[in-house]
Amino acid sequence: MGRRGAINKNILLFLPPLNKGRCPANAGRRGELNLMRINNLKKYKNVRKMLRKNMTKEEVKLWCILKSKNFNNYKFRRQHGIGPYIVDFYCPKLKLVVELDGD
């Protein structure tokens, strides 16, 4: 995000896998793992909502194909947050991120 409120859709970033270790302050009683939440952080909710309302023509066309499990019965999410990044489309079953460039 260069300017305040501006979003650069030409950047695709890959996040490394999380280190699934114990969190000492919040560890469960029987050694349960407490993982940090990284998907759809609340502080980016308004940005995701704004992006869903202002989709490009290309995103609208692809969303018509992907929504409601129309694409090989896979569920896709649009404008999904992964850490501080917001991706155009995400398939949780395949762990697949789709980013579109377009005007």
Q: Topology, pairings included?
A:
Layout: H1 45-53, H2 57-66, E1 77-82, E2 85-91, E3 96-98
Antiparallel strand pairs: 1-2, 2-3
What do these coordinates show?
The chain has helices at 45-53, 57-66; strands at residues 77-82, 85-91, 96-98. Mean pLDDT is 75; it is low at 1-16. Helix content is 18%, strand content 16%. It is built from 2 helices and 3 strands. The protein has a domain at 38-98. With 103 residues, it is α+β, with helices and mostly antiparallel strands. The protein has a 3-stranded antiparallel sheet.
Characteristics:
single chain; 16% strand; 3-stranded antiparallel β-sheet; 18% helix; 2 helices; globular
Largest sheet: 3 strands, antiparallel
Per DSSP, the total helix count is 2
Query: How many whole angstroms does the radius of gyration measure?
Result: 16 Å
Helix proportion: 10-25%
Shape: globular
Q: What's the arrangement of strands in the largest beta sheet?
A: 1-2-3
SSE order = HHEEE
Beta-strand percent range: 15-25%
Structural class: alpha+beta
**N-end to C-end Cα span:** 17 Å
- The whole-number mean of residue pLDDT values reads 75
Q: Are there runs of 5+ residues with pLDDT below 50, and where?
A: 1-16
Short description:
With 103 residues, the chain is an alpha+beta fold. It has helices at residues 45-53, 57-66; strands at 77-82, 85-91, 96-98. The chain has a three-stranded antiparallel sheet with strand order 1-2-3.
